[in-house]
Amino acid sequence: MTIYLNGAFMPIEEARISVLDRGFIFGDGVYEVIPVYSRRPFRLAEHLQRLQHSLDGIKLKNPHSEREWTAILSELIERNAQDGRNQDQYLYLHITRGVAKRDHAFPNPPVPPTVFLLSNPLTTPPPELLQSGIACITVADNRWLRCDIKAIALLPNVLLRQAAVEAGCAEAILIRDDAFLTEGAASNIFVVKNGKLLAPPKDNLMLPGITYDVILELAAANGIPYEVRRVTKAEVLGADELLLTSSTKEVLPITQLDGKPVGNGKPGAMFAKLHPLYQTFKREVMRK
């Protein structure tokens, strides 16, 4: 496996990062995850825009232009797709505030950021999972108030996802103030009620998902009723369908919540519409 670290491509075994890196000491950094299909990044411009939003949120200068990022990512993809392998990948992009003496305040003067990129094979959900759906639990959203920043300090999300795993579930659905839906521990969540798609608004309490945007674009383009607003806990618990979206999971039906079936306990009509629309959209985008 070839990775990219601070301007150089190298085998992952050769990568070295200082223990004084602020990402290691403080979790002072941001990241991005970009799916790659047939060696082409999906919605790259949107992912780089979200990266810029995260960097702005922590007051860290972007180390590269969009053109430079594109060249680096393309080279990493090609180096990990030799001999016809790994045509589909997902890229993990990680930027920290760099190496400095341990101090909560930003280094002054600033130090060079640490830039790390990793490629892994991308495996999309298998057909049997699309047919059965996944189980989730609801948990209290006890994270900080800047969830729109894709920060590397993910301990709250780790604990929330682990709570789901320990309950025998795939994901935790987060409820803020015992009142309304925000998102999943590592995903966005949609509620379906009476044929309408309900989506939480993009604000500081959730990550602005790239797949979230695609789903709403597809709904608008295909006459599927939808509404972006606060979605109550009661609406989550009483949903006809629940859908999970993320860059690596794409679109998945949630068929069990807190040990009870969602709707009739099977993937529903909204998933049956949106999943093929998403796959068609993906193929069309990758042909351009």
From TrEMBL:
Belongs to the class-IV pyridoxal-phosphate-dependent aminotransferase family. Its EC number is 2.6.1.21. Its cofactor is pyridoxal 5'-phosphate. CDD domains: D-AAT_like. Keywords: Aminotransferase, Pyridoxal phosphate, Transferase. The keyword Transferase applies. It comes from mine drainage metagenome. GO terms for molecular function: D-alanine-2-oxoglutarate aminotransferase activity. InterPro entries: Aminotrans_IV, Aminotransferase-like, BCAT-like_C, BCAT-like_N, Class-IV_PLP-Dep_Aminotrnsfr. GO terms for biological process: amino acid biosynthetic process; carboxylic acid biosynthetic process. The keyword Protein transport does not apply. This is D-alanine aminotransferase. SUPFAM superfamilies: D-aminoacid aminotransferase-like PLP-dependent enzymes. One of its GO terms (cellular component) is cytosol.
